[in-house]
Here is the input.
Amino acid sequence: MQDQAAANNGTVHEIQPLDALMQKIAEHKGCGSSGGAGKASCGSAAGQGDLPPEVWEKVKNHPCYSEEAHHHYARMHVAVAPACNIQCNYCNRKYDCANESRPGVVSEKLTPEQAARKVVAVASAIPQMTVLGIAGPGDPLANPEKTFRTFELVAREAPDIKLCLSTNGLALPDHVETIKRFNVDHVTITINVVDPEVGQHIYPWIFYRHKRYTGREAARILSERQLQGLEMLTAAGILCKVNSVMIPGVNDRHLVEVNRAVKSRGAFLHNIMPLISAPEHGTVFGLNGQRGPTAQELKALQDQCEGEMNMMRHCRQCRADAVGLLGEDRSAEFSTEKVMAMEVSYDAAARKAYQERVEQDRQEKVAAREAELAQPGADFGDIKILAAVATKGGGRINEHFGHAGEFQIYEVSAAGTKFIGHRRVDHYCQGGYGEEDTLDTVIRAINDCVAVFVAKIGACPKDSLKAAGIDPVDGYAHEFIEQSVIAYFKEYVEKVRRGEIAHIDKGDADIRQGAYIAA
Here is the structure.
């Protein structure tokens, strides 16, 4: 390319070759993991004492940027950006597909005016909704007029709501000044490669400067623009999360290099997500049989990258019209027809009062966890276990086993608890009856866990779980998750020390019972 300059409000930004960009280090060095036992210096697991005050204010009630906040606060996406400027082999933007939960899927597209009314309606009905994101169904910055008009209207009507956008990064350097001017404090960039040789297998084409590029050249231009945009955002003081899709055999090993590159350019958080590639989705990868990673493969890569940078592990790969807490979808309650018929009264004071109560509950949860950790217990040694939890939110064990659509997975050790991800499952209870085939799939999804914590569970699934070496625990119903799993872990270690149970490495996929012991 002869001309790779980006005009941005009269300012021209030179595009540097990828190898030259790799030498530039952003002033903010990203996030390490040196916060000590059970803590992180920054990133999704960080608490108030781990971050500068100005950063804490940005993330404390943002469910995507704070793992702790995602138990308590909701977000919503509005589908105002239908056009896209690149093609990914894992993407197929289908509409009117309400039963699918994956990025790029929406039930209806909105105008900025419809979107703003929907935001006000949702924020009035869900007072813990704190964040508005625009993530598609195409790319927000391929639709800049609609995107920034929506932000303008929402900022006017609901100024207490945080503004976010998620982009593939191709057009990002052109819009950094506009992003800053509209007080968009959080930007997510999807960066799957920093090597065009790898990228050509993910991106068939891009459309840039009124021209279509394919193959290695397309991947090279996209990578250069993404990294430049990331540096510009961090220099402007805007928090950046990087999303990467893990594609086994394509970019899985390369993502370690991606992790180092985005950390060096100031990314706040790295979210490595599993490829979604069911054939019925109609994506290139889905149709050619490309598999997604197993939960164990995903965790191993996240663990490997965490030494360089803190990882986001609570992502739900949301639809572009998602509404509610992460892991729930209330978008059907707020269709355009329903929103237009609502009498909406936006009460900022009432929202603030409700969120103050949420914060009080949140602080009680943190205090309960710290108190449990402070209690004397067994010598834990290097034992670690994984525990699955059924929850509706609020940081509590408050979901019936048969009604769970996902289980949150925690790693528990002498350092405390660490959220490591979630496992989606089909509901075991269908119409009041348990489905045995479904139970088998649930057990397979959590078979590396020592225990599953639930609010309630029937005798049949309880017996099947025990036979599979998974302890069904319903004695902590409606209690705080982390306090409960720590208390259970203490009892578990005591049983190991007394010889009542054997510790077997559940990291081995062929082993179905026993404890997960750190190597």
User: Anything to note?
Assistant: DSSP finds 15 helices and 19 strands in the chain. The chain has two domains: 5-11+27-338, 375-497. Confidence is low (pLDDT under 50) at residues 1-41, 95-100, 508-519.
